[in-house]
Amino acid sequence: MATAHPPAEIRNIALVGHGGSGKTTLTERLLFSAGVTQRMGSIQDKNTVSDWSEEEHHHQHSLNQTMVHFEARSHLSDKSVVVNLLDTPGLADFVGHAIASLPAVETAMVVIDAGKGIETVTRRIFNIAKERNLPRAIVINKIDEHNLDLEGLVSKIREAFGMECLPINLPTAGGEKVINVFEAEHADGDAPVFGSVEEAHQQIQEQVVEVDEALTETYFEGGELDPKKLHVAFEKCLREGHLVPICFCSAKTGAGIDDLLHVMVDYMPSPLEGNPRPFVEGGGQTDEKPYHYTAEANKPLLAHVFKVASDRHIGKLGVFRVHQGTIKPKDEVYIGASKKPVRIAHIFKRLGNQNIEVDELGPGDIGAVAKIDEIHFGSVLHSDHSADTVHLKRLPLPKPMYGVAVELKNHKDEAKFAPAVHKLMEEDPSLIIERVAATNQTVMRGLGELHLRVINEKLKDQYGIEIETSVPKIAFKESVSAKAEGHHRHKKQSGGSGEFGEVYLRVEPLAIEDSHSDEPAFEFVNATVGGSIPKQYIPAIEKGIRDVLKTGAVAGYPMTGVRVEVYDGKYHAVDSKEVAFIKAGKRAFIDAVQKAKPILLEPFVHLEVTVPSTSMGDIAGDLSTKRGRVEDTEMIGSDTVIVKAQAPLSELQNYSTHLKSMTAGAGSYTMDFSHIEQTPPNIQASVIAEFKGHHDED
Ligand SMILES: Nc1nc2c(ncn2[C@@H]2O[C@H](COP(=O)(O)OP(=O)(O)OP(=O)(O)O)[C@@H](O)[C@H]2O)c(=O)[nH]1
Ligand SMILES: [Mg+2]
């Protein structure tokens, strides 16, 4: 079995980009070129290494991130280098898996369809990779196609993503092959289909030397520099985002693939050369400070789980990237702050759905461990308690906003449902399935209609559970819009000792700073004087109020944005006890909220609708009937436009079907949580009217 590869001989690369740009086909081509496979599979034949699941075959799109690896020889060092390649989904509904893959790699290669150009997910993921300080490269795929304007595409890329995007190779006529212009100074035989080798060579060399003063001087004095001597400067350029190389290829014909391999192995950063990943230590957002590590094999282990998968034979798999130290079977590691170590059994490298056992994995490598229940998405495996609070800086994962209410077709499946849901949620950072007490429904939330359809298929195919779905009730929040006072005297005399507690309080609106948080915006102040309520009962009053925050005061929805001041009360030396003040606090609070002009808040989303420009007017008009506000429009290409808007989620429950019919199937959209906003009075009145009241009478 294989032992660890030194980090200098590893490249970790994620293929990202819009759905259908050719990432999976490219993965297949690279595996074939590297000799891992003997024949090339295709999407159409449903036999690629990377899209191996039933659902992927059915939809002909990647629905999950898949890892493969292969070896390729470095021209620079003449050593064999391991490339760990992550093929990610490009459909917007599955983009969470692509974003979650970024912490595992040094480079994001953004694949663009030569004919279609820059698409929505291309932009989104390019920008996220940039924000996360990840070196990027652009791969223009499908250069075998006809009627392409590759020169125009390069200009558009530079316009959209910056002048630091420069071709490292150029295609020849018909996309038959590519010429590496970083290395070649002159066209040697073949001419590129646009531009000139000399000019492109000069442009990229000048860009590279710019990050190093001494090199710049040498270059402008003597001209030409040997590309091999520019390696350090090249890596610095990538790290600083001063250069984003553009490569051309055709995954279908194989044109440009050798050069792409060469670029991956000889130009993309190794784990020693890439930017460090943003690990932080400490709890809470405010006390977090950066955590430094080094890719050294004999330091304590630091490995980050960026994916949880399940394998039909092995069971639960935690897929991780080693950032520091080495991991071996029989090692004992800690997960999070747990004092109890877990024992590693086997370690694997993944190749599609195959698991290949290895002896150890060193810093910079990617692998998987099996059957460790304690492992979750984002877990940090470590061997030293000093790393107990270390975690990755929060990823900008989209918040699942598209929801359906779920009911089982067969009640006999009830026992199977909870464990299946648990597994599906562990494997998908963009999926939430939960019981919503406020609406008394089980709601499944994801990134879009297709996402939830695939989950539905998985429930059926993998777990034998059939469900019915319907439009869910909206999860409102309650708040107050005015100041008011509330009072309650709780008194109970039943046989032996009684219960007594009396509370006077005031409520007022409190600004909601973070509407993304599920925690309520809430402030509790004890303003009693002279011991009117003994200190020990104050927490009980707060508890009573917090219970109401969870269940709501007027409409049965959780509350937020409220400040409470308890200013007076009474107690009884014998009959006062905690439970009495919990009840009094609860009732006094409900009393105050009912008088404080209660309001309902509803979730609003950011909506980006991509449609043919001819439909723009219809889309904007339709959104305004849905209480939406168009904020911006952006032309992409000559006939496509992105309409950016804010709208209430409640009005968009059937938007995918609606959009399809408005644009004859040509439109697509993404939505992401924006904020919460007050519901119009007519809707509020009908929601409150439905509320059945408080059942916990005392
Ligand atoms: N002509 C041509 N077609 C290609 C090429 N690469 C991929 N395709 C086709 O483009 C389609 C999409 O390819 P995929 O490899 O599934 O694209 P993807 O980027 O993995 O798509 P998602 O998984 O949805 O993100 C398939 O029909 C491929 O056969 C290419 O180089 N040239
Ligand atoms: Mg794919």
Describe the structure.
- The protein contains 16 helices and 33 strands.
- It has 698 residues and is an alpha+beta fold.
- It has 5 domains: 257 residues, P-loop containing nucleotide triphosphate hydrolases (Rossmann fold, 3-Layer(aba) Sandwich); 100 residues, Elongation Factor Tu (Ef-tu), domain 3; 69 residues, Alpha-Beta Plaits (2-Layer Sandwich), CATH 3.30.70; 113 residues, Ribosomal Protein S5, domain 2 (2-Layer Sandwich); 85 residues, Alpha-Beta Plaits.
- The strands form 7 sheets. The protein has an 8-stranded antiparallel beta sheet. Strands 2-3-1-4-5-9-6 form a 7-stranded mixed beta sheet, with helices on both faces. Strands 25, 30, 31, 32 and 33 form a 5-stranded antiparallel beta sheet that branches.
- Helix 12 packs across helix 13.
- The mean pLDDT is 92.
- The protein binds guanosine-5'-triphosphate and magnesium ion (MG).
- Magnesium ion (MG) binds next to helix 1.
